[in-house]
Amino acid sequence: MKFQQASVFFLSTSVSAWTAPTMTIGKSDVATGRRDAIVKGLSIAAGVAAVPTVTNAYAVPDLLYDYAALEPYIDAPTMKIHHDLHHGTYVANINKATEGKPAVPILDLMENALEAGPVRNSGGGHYNHAFFWDEMAPPAKAKASKISPQLQTLIDSSFGSVDEMKAKFEAAAAPGAVFGSGWVWVCLNGDKLEIVGTPNQDNPLMKGVKDTIMFPILGIDVWEHAYYLKYQNRRPEYVKEWWNVVDWNKVSDNCAYVVKNHKGVSVRD
Question: Can you give the pTM of this predicted structure?
Answer without folding.
Answer: 0.81
